[in-house]
């Protein structure tokens, strides 16, 4: 499209020469011929400082604020000047890419926990129903095109920056994808990454303490989530009312919402009851406006009942329901790194992404309830350069609910691992009945857990889920909790979860 057309759409002055735009980018290093480059103000520097690099890479126009104008023009880039370039970036990306979100069925999922599980279940069900679908989230971007071929795109953030997001949606549309499911983080909502996507249906799973290093307070965290349930971001909502935040959201949302609950005594449009363990999953009944129905969750615990019910309601909201959908839901619950069963017997090994106090509590309560469980051994820690206030709470939960707690390193990043461990240990009461160990090094911690485990014990390795690296300082070292746990238990006669004959 022409720069003049874009300038008119953004309410900016058009450049004094004809310019044709072919793409949008935020990164000066990845600019290509014909790109609009967005130079945003930052906490430590202004993006316009890199204008010369963007021009050398092929950018032909800059989108910036008044503070960035002179630096962009000095580098030879005409500038579209707007008051809020971050918000305008999303609008520009959507326009230049042809507004792909308007031509896809879109589902957005937000909440502290459950985003990845719900979007993964959705995508697997859609695959089983032969509906070309894609997912964007913590584990990256993947989609199955109209011919049945699978594609994967590496992404860094849970919700990509707006130029990347709209580019991904445009690519999905070109490849005949029909439905795109997306994790929508609170950061993305505050920083306008998800702007210009009006989801056909948005889902709220829950809210508990996390990301207070960014939001400051739980109220601000909630307000960020709430913005998804406005006409600017979604048409309809599906809201879990198991917690007070969900109940509040159900009243404050400015779009029509349908509610669901899994806790006894909580009123909702759809309520799960009679939850019963079945193998490593659960069966349950649901009471709804059209009468009772039965569902199966392929993973254990009330939170996976909630995730399965959420997925069912989201699919129904885009027109997919009936026996085939129900059957696919019962088989599509396994999510890499989310309550992933690594070994089955005689010692059960589980890897889970639980990296908040609430998620860790859910995981431990769930595993305690699995029939035949003897002791719970938890390997856990906390990430560096993230919300520090949650660390003692995670330690308290682990000491209260596990029989053995091994406090070790997560992704320490730039922080001293020993200081992080000390903060986690500081939340444990002195009279805890749990056997507590502090271990420097995640591999050594997992090996200790395996050496302490006996028949019918369950080891939970929490915090990193399906991540395949551990960040220490500026270096990401190869590390996969699932591989390490499987290897540590391999000498104990333990049967891997995907074995059929006990050999591997």
UniProtKB/TrEMBL annotation:
Residues 337-465 form the Mur ligase C-terminal domain. Residues 21-94 form the Mur ligase N-terminal catalytic domain. A motif (Meso-diaminopimelate recognition motif) lies at residues 410-413. It is found in: Cytoplasm. UDP-N-acetyl-alpha-D-muramoyl-L-alanyl-D-glutamate binds at residues 26, 28, 158-159, 185, 193. The modification N6-carboxylysine is found at residue 225. Carboxylation is probably crucial for Mg(2+) binding and, consequently, for the gamma-phosphate positioning of ATP. It catalyses: UDP-N-acetyl-alpha-D-muramoyl-L-alanyl-D-glutamate + meso-2,6-diaminopimelate + ATP = UDP-N-acetyl-alpha-D-muramoyl-L-alanyl-gamma-D-glutamyl-meso-2,6-diaminopimelate + ADP + phosphate + H(+). HAMAP family: MurE. This is UDP-N-acetylmuramoyl-L-alanyl-D-glutamate--2,6-diaminopimelate ligase. The gene is murE.
